[in-house]
Amino acid sequence: MTKYARRRALVVGEATGIGLAIAKRLVEGGASVLLTARTEEERAHAVAELGSAARVVTPSAVEAALTGETAAAAGEAVIGTGPGGDAPGFRGGVDLLFADAIPTARPLLPHIEDGGAIVLTAPTPCPDAVRALAAELASRGIRVNAVAPGCIEAPGSGAVPLPPLGRLGAAEEVARAALFLATEATFTTGARLPVDGGRGRP
Which of 33, 28, 25 shows the shortest CA–CA distance to 7? Predict the structure, then answer.
């Protein structure tokens, strides 16, 4: 499948659950993906899941990956190589950014191409914060939206009341909503989409 061919995506904030599910769908669709993972275990797991179309780096090595600096020069571990043994290239920026929160996304704004998209993936921020960032970036044609996950099944999570749909959601379902906002909702910005089985969020 080549739905996301020629897309260059950065997924930051978490390498498990929702972040990894987003990265997997992007890779399956033909995108080049740069993913951050904090621990060696998370990085190894992400590489095993994503294969050669993704590059997995520590959070502090993102800047080096985006500017073309070598991993050795950055002093950080880089795992994952592209086809032919070369790491996927991200020099020049990305057109899709998936971040857990606005403070995570903000330092990366110079690396997002004009006309790109940002999707925030944590239950916060508040709708006003999403709209404010969307207004700030509108002049660059960058759309900013958020998914608001709730009642999502996670390993080790305790029992929670079920939402009206009668079951817990999956990270994959949040990933599909995030990718819709990033690539298909081309006249939508400043929106916050609940993905919570109907539980409802203020």
Answer: 33
Distance CA 123, CA 126 (A): 9
Band the pLDDT of 160: cuts 50, 70, 90: confident
CA–CA dist 57, 94 (Å, integer)? 15
**Which of 125-129, 159-163, 184-188 is predicted with the least confidence, judged by mean pLDDT?**
159-163
80 within 8 A of 87, measured Cβ to Cβ: yes
Strand 54-57 relative to strand 78-79, pairing:
antiparallel
What does the alpha-carbon distance between residue 36 and residue 19 come to, in Å, rounded to a whole number?
9
Peptide bond into 125 cis (omega under 30): yes
Residue (of 86, 94, 78, 87) closest to 26 by Cα position: 94
Which are the contacts of 30, defined by CB distance < 8 A and separation ≥ 6?
Answer: 1, 2, 3, 4, 5, 6, 7, 53
pTM above 0.85, yes or no: yes
